Amino acid sequence: MEEMTRDEALKLLRPLPVPQRLVGCHEIQQFTVSESAAKDFNRAEQPMFGGSGRYIEAGSYLRLVRHDPEDIGKPWLVVMSDTPAERMDHVEPVIHGQGHCLVLGLGIGMVTRALLEKPEVERVTVVERSDEVLDLVAATYLEKYGDRLEIVQADALEWKPKPGTRFGVVWCDIWDTIDPDNWPEYVKLTRRYQNRSDWRGCWAKAECWREVGYMRGYAEPPRSLPAFFMW
Ligand SMILES: C[S@@+](CC[C@H](N)C(=O)[O-])C[C@H]1O[C@@H](n2cnc3c(N)ncnc32)[C@H](O)[C@@H]1O
User: Fold this and answer.
1) What does the DSSP 8-state code read for residue 219?
2) Cα 132 to chain centroid, rounded
3) Ligand 1 pocket, residue 129 CB under 6 Å
4) What confidence tens digit (pLDDT) does each residue in 168-182 have?
5) What is the number of the ligand 1 atom nearest to the C-alpha of 110?
6) In terms of C-beta density within 10 A (0-12 exposed, 13-18 middle, 19 or more buried), how is residue 173 classed?
7) Which of 2, 64, 159, 223 is deepest in the core (most CB within 10 A)?
8) CATH superfamily of this structure's domain 90-215
9) Pocket test residue of 106, 112, 175 for ligand 1, highest count of atoms within 8 A of CB
């Protein structure tokens, strides 16, 4: 079968209209990006200024935010949204999606939905730790995708599939930010699934790798695979 293009994958990367609600310190919100906010973001992301080339457009979007549990009124952290920049970060698992796929981190369900929209994806298992995120998001997807979708509540760093399970794709997206302290988790999950999946990836792994290298004074990442995993 011919591989899907990036544009085709991007088209599938749209969350279902999850109801806007606050549960504990997590909230689903619709929000608007103004023309000027989009311009500021895009200017900063231009490759010539060291940016990634990711962009956003003015419009209305969906986001999952995490409030400070001590003070819901304080500024919050955006855990996930469906802006073009975020959608661009998730095309690879969608391009490779086939068979039984594993998604670590439900978020707004955007990757899960894109995978389930591919006829070559038989089913998707999602592992999500937060009961608040599950309360906000899971039902909308389970209702639409029925028994092609299984959502497990567990810590993805501890959860292991049944022996012998093999996945078409494993996508690990459990991190809020790019932080060198998270590097051991990237390594742990990559090792766990490298012999159990046809394709696997982690959100922002290359960017995290670069930060770890910078902190340790490496100009370049280690060249050999064993060195990479020991890093
Ligand atoms: C950035 S969001 C994932 C976005 C998702 N890729 C999507 O398409 O919407 C990260 C999710 O991982 C969850 N999470 C964080 N740490 C986790 C862990 N250790 N195990 C399972 N889920 C975790 C968060 O609650 C959040 O729902």
Assistant:
1) S
2) 17
3) yes
4) 999 999 999 988 889
5) 8
6) buried
7) 64
8) Vaccinia Virus protein VP39 (3.40.50.150)
9) 106
